[in-house]
């Protein structure tokens, strides 16, 4: 299965492409924003495609050639304003979903925020609320499709080295999780069809990634 990783140059994306390339059953296609970002993925033997999420849906859809699944792990980042949050985390996600529908790519894994409920929007600090709003509506757009989706809600992301030990369920207590372990969870979800049509929160824990995903 060939997996298009949208936001491949992000920290979770880089871990994920590396893991996919190391697996036996999957191969990665890294969607990046700039040609100069390609060298990392070339060294892994991964195919790259340069597409900007601010482009239109038809342009984004060109990246979907010959892929079987897509993972949306892109984000505007913490140093941008609400405008970029809307353009990337909401509109970019929706256009990616529409591109998948347009090209017949049914498997879609969305990396969301830990809590994207209406209650979370209302309680979020003003600086963080636009991000939660963007993720809330992007998640909802995906749920309303006929795509084989999985929505992953990771806890507070850290750069600690992963240990492949997590806690995953429809609802868990808020906590931290290494970005490397988020990538491992994505990989396990891609390999496990029982995650289709499901969404779950995940933080660091005491259960292996494989067992946690199988028990969802």
UniProtKB/TrEMBL annotation:
Which residues constitute the signal peptide according to the record? Answer: none
Q: What is this protein called?
A: Sugar epimerase YhfK
Q: Which InterPro entries match?
A: NAD(P)-bd_dom (IPR016040), NAD(P)-bd_dom_sf (IPR036291)
Q: Which CDD domains match?
A: SDR_a5 (cd05243)
| Top-level lineage group | Bacteria
- The organism is Halobacillus karajensis
Q: Which SUPFAM superfamilies match?
A: NAD(P)-binding Rossmann-fold domains
Limits of the NAD(P)-binding domain: 7-192
Q: Where are the transmembrane segments?
A: none
The record's annotation in Gene3D superfamilies points to: NAD(P)-binding Rossmann-like Domain
One Pfam match: NAD_binding_10
């Amino acid at each position: 299965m060939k997996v298009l990783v949208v936001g491949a140059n992000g920290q979770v994306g880089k871990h994920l492409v590396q893991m996919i390339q190391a697996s036996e059953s999957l191969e990665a296609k890294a969607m990046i924003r700039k040609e100069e970002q390609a060298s990392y993925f070339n060294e892994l033997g991964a195919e790259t495609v340069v597409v900007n999420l601010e482009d239109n849906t038809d342009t984004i859809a060109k990246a979907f050639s010959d892929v079987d699944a897509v993972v949306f792990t892109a984000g505007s980042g913490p140093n941008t304003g609400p405008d970029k949050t809307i353009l990337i985390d909401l509109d970019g996600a929706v256009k990616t979903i529409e591109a998948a529908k347009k090209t017949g790519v049914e498997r879609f894994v969305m990396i969301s925020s830990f809590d994207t409920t209406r209650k979370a929007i209302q309680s979020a600090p003003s600086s963080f609320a636009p991000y939660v709003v963007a993720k809330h509506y992007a998640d909802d757009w995906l749920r309303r499709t006929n795509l084989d989706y999985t929505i992953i809600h990771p806890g507070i992301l850290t750069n600690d080295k992963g240990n492949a030990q997590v806690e995953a369920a429809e609802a868990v207590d808020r906590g931290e999780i290494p970005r490397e372990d988020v990538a491992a969870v994505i990989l396990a979800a891609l390999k496990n069809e029982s995650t289709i049509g499901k969404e779950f929160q995940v933080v660091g824990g005491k259960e292996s990634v494989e067992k946690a995903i199988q028990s969802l």
